[in-house]
Amino acid sequence: MITLTDKEIEERYKIHHAIKDIKSILNDYRNDQIVESIRTVLPAGDDSSMLYMPCISLSQKVSIIKTVSIFPNNKDLPTTQGSILLTDLSDGKHKVTMEASYLTRLRTGAMTAIATDKLARQDSKTLGVIGTGNMAFEQVLGVIEVRDIKEIILFNRTAEKAEKFKKDLEEFGIEIEITVAASVDQLTTGSDIINCATQSVSPVFNGEHLTAGTHINGVGSFKPSMKEMDHTTIKSADQIYVDDLSSIKEEAGELIDAVENDVIQWSDIKGQLSDFYDGEFLRESDKEITLYKCVGAGYFDLAVANGVYK
């Protein structure tokens, strides 16, 4: 059996590879070639969680089981760590185990790229990033893959983390003007696209400060208790799309809360990635506020794991 580390994967497998493989798995999903069970999330104490995701692609004849640990209080280790076991369904042989921290971030960034490409204004120039933890980096890569971003504005509750994130982006080779906002309101009013990648249990920005034409990607919260966005933001959205509606109904705290409080209904969600990834541009005007919410699902992990293996 092959064993691959995050470093080995990162050297060979990039955001454009992940976008291509995510689109391929969305085609499998659309054609009823995916077999999966709901992600199991178990509390591990001290705000920590363990996640377990099994999935099969009948057309690609592979299976995965993904295990992820999320430990927000880690100081010397990443908050999110994971591993994937990939099995060949032609003979049942376990082919490869791979670290999945990078792949988790990358597949989420690829999904954000697909949604942003269909929803964000074509002339979007400024990307605002709220939360500068590990998950945020590949979200930036996803957005700049599909839009000609000229400025990136960062905000984190701990300013030092935002400054480090800026340095990481620059060292990666991103030649875009990057600033650290003094307040989240400054970021909200000045951004064409906003990425939220936090595990907050309360909204991280005020929806009243959104400007017309903003597109929002919410990718951080993944439990019913987590809420990155407020009711104003959700109610203001002219179009709401998600990655996987079944998972969203179980795990997207801000949308669950909005439905329970009659801010929106589930029927207000216009579709999921498999409905629009290869379709027409979805935005109907430059003044619409659009929202994409992501919590993840096993078939997205299968897409990138099999892409790495191939």
TrEMBL record:
Domain of life, source organism: Bacteria
Taxonomic lineage: Bacteria, Bacillati, Bacillota, Bacilli, Bacillales
Pfam families hit by this protein: OCD_Mu_crystall
Protein name: Ornithine cyclodeaminase family protein
InterPro entries hit by this protein: NAD(P)-bd_dom_sf, ODC_Mu_crystall, ODC_N
